[in-house]
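Hi all, posting the design record for the shared folder.

TITLE: backbone redesign
STEP: 1 of 1
STRUCTURE INPUT:
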């Protein structure tokens, strides 16, 4: 596909981290309940703090990389902390006999296993905050700013991450199961092994893959100390940003807004979709009459990404080979439109269903299929566009800001989910009346289509503001 040889080594490292992280995320709440005997509210609170802090800390991880460490050291630093965290969790889970007689957590006094666990959570947050932002910005260093292959490179990167995301729940179901305190240690141990494999791939790829075609090593020094920052335009470190750079930041800001919008919509699958499937969907696979749990639908997302990614990669490359460049801005706009279309599918399903009648699961599958097409047109493309537009000395910091939008979106998505009218009418943001389920999904459908339409209407102005192919 004409990609730089580094992309597969970087993506493989990210895949192993994805397996490790999603095993951790997938069992965390139940581990706190089953082994540490935290209450449900306290467990979900700790999960929210751990999840949110991970993304907020990425601003720091990106800054330290750009200013002091460089991508190679920052990524290895992150992997090391994640590996340490998983080993801490493995040890902590092996103490399940100590906590077996503790039936309730004390809010005033933490036990030894609980202290060890919280240390692991801190190590995980630090590790992920250094890894995710800097492994993504590392890709940019192997491509010229106007590289037409960058969108495809990030699509490959995103594909590998989703392979890891698909493997994690399979490992959890087969190794840990449900409510088996003695088995959590093995889940964490597999997560540690996965991260160790990621470390091996990254370290062994340094000399062979993490070099330019002329043999120059990449990512050894921070951007602020490389030849990139010594160009004539940047000789004066105190020089103000140029108009082109300021305009580039404006476009990056708009792209971050599009990422935020996508995440607010996308994170509904973890809350409202589960509630919908639990009460209003006939969760039986046609023809084989096999019943599935609501969580089954969550596995369809990574599966569709894996199946669709090669198609999009080939499509992007074919257009570039024919000199028919489709800008990242256009792809994002189409993706935003598809967001609205996906929720319109749910609106149609619920609007044509009578009371106490469950909809066919095919509606949910179609919804997720369209949603994942939107994801592939937005998430890897926005990452690619940010690395193209952000000044090189701010690349990791801007990707850190990209991940911060995930935390903000989680809060907004949670507020939206709280207005889900499962039984009675509600008010969204205490302003918008939501009479029933079809009204709820219609709101998201209209919002997505309107935002996507406005984006496409002004796409030429956004592209012009970028001052470069994007």
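Okay, here is what came back for every position:
SEQUENCE:
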């Amino acid at each position: 596909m004409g990609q730089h040889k580094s992309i597969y080594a970087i993506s493989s490292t990210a895949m192993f981290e994805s397996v490790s992280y999603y095993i951790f995320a997938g069992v965390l709440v139940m581990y706190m309940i089953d082994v540490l005997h935290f209450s449900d509210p306290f467990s979900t609170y700790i999960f929210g703090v751990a999840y949110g802090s991970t993304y907020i800390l990425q601003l720091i991880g990106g800054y330290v990389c750009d200013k002091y460490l460089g991508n190679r050291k920052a990524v290895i630093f992150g992997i090391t902390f994640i590996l340490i965290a998983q080993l801490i969790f493995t040890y902590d889970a092996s103490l399940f006999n100590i906590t077996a007689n503790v039936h309730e957590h004390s809010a005033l006094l933490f036990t030894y296993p609980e202290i060890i666990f919280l240390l692991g959570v801190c190590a995980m947050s630090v590790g992920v905050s250094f890894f995710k932002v800097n492994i993504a910005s590392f890709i940019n260093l192997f491509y010229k700013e106007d590289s037409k292959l960058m969108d495809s490179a990030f699509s490959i990167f995103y594909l590998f991450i989703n392979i890891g995301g698909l493997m994690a729940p399979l490992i959890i179901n087969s190794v840990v199961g449900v409510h088996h305190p003695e088995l959590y240690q093995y889940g964490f141990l597999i997560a540690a092994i996965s991260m160790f494999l990621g470390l091996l791939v990254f370290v062994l790829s340094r000399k062979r893959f993490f070099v330019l075609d002329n043999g120059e090593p990449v990512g050894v020094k921070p951007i602020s100390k490389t030849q990139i920052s010594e160009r004539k335009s940047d000789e004066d470190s105190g020089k103000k940003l140029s108009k082109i750079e300021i305009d580039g930041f404006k476009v990056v800001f708009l792209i971050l807004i599009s990422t935020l919008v996508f995440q607010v919509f996308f994170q509904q699958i973890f809350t409202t979709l589960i509630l919908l499937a639990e009460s209003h969907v006939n969760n039986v696979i046609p023809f084989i009459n096999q019943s599935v749990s609501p969580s089954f639908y969550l596995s369809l997302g990574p599966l569709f990404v894996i199946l669709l990614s090669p198609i999009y990669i080939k499509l992007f490359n074919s257009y570039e080979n024919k000199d028919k460049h489709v800008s990242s801005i256009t792809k994002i706009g189409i993706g935003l439109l598809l967001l609205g279309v996906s929720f319109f599918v749910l609106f149609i399903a619920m609007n044509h269903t009578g009371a106490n009648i469950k909809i066919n699961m095919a509606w949910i599958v179609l919804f997720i299929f369209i949603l994942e097409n939107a994801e592939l047109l937005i998430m890897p493309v926005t990452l690619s566009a940010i690395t193209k537009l952000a000044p090189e000395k701010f690349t990791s910091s801007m990707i850190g800001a990209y991940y911060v939008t995930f935390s903000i979106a989680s809060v907004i998505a949670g507020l939206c989910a709280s207005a889900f009218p499962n039984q009675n009418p509600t008010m969204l943001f205490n302003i918008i009346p939501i009479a029933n389920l079809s009204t709820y999904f219609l709101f998201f459908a209209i919002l997505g289509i309107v935002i996507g339409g406005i984006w496409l209407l002004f796409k030429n102005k956004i592209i012009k503001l970028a001052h470069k192919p994007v």
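COMMENT: The chain has two domains: 1-232, 240-470.
Let me know if anyone wants the other runs.
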